[in-house]
Amino acid sequence: MMSGDAGIYISQSKQEKGRQWCQKPASYQLTLLPNEGIPLQSMLEVLRLFCQLEEQEALAMAIDLYGYGQAASCGSYSFDIAHTKKIQMESYLSAKGYQLACEVWAKNA
User: Fold this and answer.
1) Does some domain include residue 6?
2) How many Å apart are CA 77 and CA 107, to the nearest integer?
3) How do residues 58-86 score in pLDDT, each as one tens digit?
4) 8 lies in a domain?
């Protein structure tokens, strides 16, 4: 075997290991469920603070939640980030005396 061939083989092996290590993480959907017990202004604050939505986007999502009674997706995140956002949003509204209905779902690939 020539030394050049061995170098190519090692290079390919490192490339394959890199692909395995850099796989895209599983995606989880953070979903708000309708809850008319939360004032609109508080819901808009949560959407802007924790979901990083612009005012118009937050308002459109709130209309889906309050006006049509439909669940609304706040985005797709890794497992840890989705659960952290869920806990932060629940804690924020709990401190104001409201209970948030929020779920984290595994997103189909």
Assistant:
1) no
2) 9
3) 999 999 888 888 898 989 999 999 999 99
4) no
**Taking the CB of residue 31, how many other CB atoms lie within 10 A of it?**
17
Answer whether residue 12 is part of any domain.
Answer: no
DSSP the chain: --HHHHHHHHHHHHHHHHHHHTPPPP-EEEEEPP-TTS-HHHHHHHHHHHS---HHHHHHHHIIIIIS---EEEEEE-HHHHHHHHHHHHHHHHHTT----EEEEEPP-
**CATH code, domain carrying 99:** 3.30.1390.10
Total residue length of the chain:
109
Instruction: Report pTM.
Output: 0.71
Q: Is residue 13 part of a domain?
A: no
Q: Which domain holds residue 64?
A: 27-106
The answer to whether 89 touches 38, Cβ cutoff 8 Å, is no
Look up tokens 């290590």; give the residue: 21
Radius of gyration of the chain (CA): 21
Instruction: Categorise residue 90: left if φ over 0, alpha if ψ from -120 to 50, beta otherwise.
Output: alpha
Domain tally, the chain: 1
